[in-house]
Amino acid sequence: MVDAVENGKVYRWTPHRERRQVKSDATNKSDTTSGASSFDELEQFEEEINPKLLKQKASWWMQYKLLLTRMMVQMWRDKSYIKLRFYMNIVLALIIGSIYRGVGDDASKAFFNFGFAFTIIIAYLYLPMMPVLLQFPTEMKFLKREYFNQWYHLSSYYAAMISSKLPFMFVLAVIYLIMVYVMSSQPLELFRFCMLFLIAFLTAMTSESLGILISSHLSLVNAMFMGPVVAVPLILLSCYGIGYGKSVYIHPVMRYLMQLSYLRHGMEGLVAALYGYDREDLHCPETEVFCMFKKSKFLLMILGFENLNYVFSVACLVLFYIIFTLAAYFMIRQRLSLRTSNNVIVQYAKQLLVKHLNFSSYNY
Predict the structure, then answer these.
(1) With the C-alpha atoms ordered 277, 278, 279, 284, is the resulting torsion angle positive or negative?
(2) Contact of 327 with 208, CB cutoff 8 Å
(3) How many other C-beta atoms are found inside a 10 Å radius of the C-beta of residue 313?
(4) What PANTHER family is this protein classified in (predicted)?
(5) According to the 3-state scheme, what is the secondary structure of 313-332?
(6) Residue 82 burial by CB count (10 A; 0-12/13-18/19+): exposed, middle or buried?
(7) Using the 8-state DSSP alphabet, how is residue 357 labeled?
(8) pLDDT averaged per 10 residues, the chain (length 364)
(9) Do 317 and 273 touch, CB atoms closer than 8 A?
């Protein structure tokens, strides 16, 4: 029996090419004491096993709930990590709120308010992305072991991992944005704050998905290096053209590249939330003789934001989030796949990446 089943080897987990090779080798073996070949006994043994018993008995929804509960408990037990992120958001909110104190309703400091919006974009680029770049390459070790042991589906694990991060991110976003919004004297209108919060939260979710995408196929060291490097062109494209006005010509190629930066759409959404939808005139201090940017529409025209569309910005952020999330899932799935490509060029390129850039190493 041991010889017949190859000591418990399950052939359905091996690639088809290797499976055919194993079966061809099995046919060349000598007959057993029962008079039948090892291959015949193996075929008979496979027929006696019900294939349904080899599948997970737990449903996808049950796997998702159990994994989500496990991840939430693990995150809650890591008190130092929770305190660090909480205090970091509080301190950062106090610093940003102090720097841009009172600029939201001051017509003489209207340009500084764009700097305030830019700080929100930068904060929700790095705050969600950097912890993922640091943690996920390490989690891949446990994911590979549990996935190959068929504890759960990859899709249930991935959905639980994304869902487990949202509640804490939501709470931190509420605390941070309320503090900086009030301290910077932005218009106290609920719908404007909700619009700003939606853009900021979508930007944070997209940044986290981008971090998962970057770290899905990189080691810890390479992921921590590539994350800030990828963020640099996104930041530059997000603020390119601000202050040029509508009279300055921008090349169509550059306009297309600007649309490829999700931070650009986040910036436009924040500006639309703060200055769009018929905002009242800004307050001009008595110490100022004349305030050029008292009218919000004139300010948007000077800065080149006269054609803002808040709904379009939200749709673009959602689209980028879906693209990054699905791309990260397929990258992880390819990483865990046992099948290899038959293309010689692809295999050679992968060997070069592994040898020189250490893309597939998780020994850090």
Answers:
(1) positive
(2) no
(3) 25
(4) ABC TRANSPORTER G FAMILY MEMBER 28, FI05267P
(5) HHHHHHHHHHHHHHHHHHHH
(6) middle
(7) I
(8) 56 52 51 48 52 65 90 88 90 92 82 87 91 86 82 88 92 94 89 93 94 86 87 87 64 83 91 85 76 78 80 94 93 75 61 56 45
(9) no
